[in-house]
Amino acid sequence: MNKIISSFLLRIIVIIGLVFVIHLFVLDFLERPLFNDKLVLAYSVNTAFAILVFITLFLFREKFKNRLGFLFLFGSMFKFALFLVFFNPSYRLDGVISKTEFFAFFVPYFFTLSIEIFSLSKWMNKLE
């Protein structure tokens, strides 16, 4: 496996794993249910699609060198569309998105997006 991809996989799995554990500790400290609000699904989906977007961009780095930014934006919009389709309807069942529901999706979304941006910028700056 390519060094860039394996480095990204290690980085995202370790960081998202730590963020997930911290998220659980915060929920426990606040005496909230730990695994409500599709928490595990949100972390899993965001991480899987971050990996998919990163690997896709890496594989097409030569062919679409001048369009990688647009492909990244498309991938990010796709992840957000997943939220609207799969998470938002269940979060809005009671008519309100609670703070725990909001953070259940957007904490992993934010961290996976940040890791993607950091990792992509490292090797994209090296492209000729």
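That was protein one. Protein two is written in the same sequence-then-structure order:
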Amino acid sequence: MRTVVQRVTEASVKVPAEGYESKIGHGLLVLAAFIDEDTEEDLEWTAKKIAAMRIFDDEDGVMNLSVKDVDGEVLAVSQFTLYASTVKGNRPSYIKAAKPDVAIPLYEKFIRRLEEHLGKPVGRGIFGADMKVGLLNDGPVTIIVDSKLKF
């Protein structure tokens, strides 16, 4: 499982064709992608890591607080393109990304895990939809969390 975590002042995802919108204020925008080999352990490790990651400033201006500590919000959006391979040619290959029949249940379980660790609902996009994502990156702080790169 691979995620891009962005500390934001605000973020939103819209699906104009369905009249859908989800938005948050201060918190994290999490772009998430999955591969066929992802397990429950990958979902749990990643959700726990994101909820506890100390990337918000404390009273001294030091990144020492988690999204949970600052009562921030989280918006999780599926983005299979995080597994793009650009090794050959100019057209990225997405062959490594899980197909919807595998990725959708993983995405839903990941959101549930995040909600359990945060103790509150998580905003979300619509898997496979043409989404318009907006954000105001705070810092900027952008971190990649990949469950297959646990050192």
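The beta strands are 2-15, 20-24, 27-33, 56-57, 63-65, 73-78, 123-124, 132-146. Keep this in mind for the problem set.
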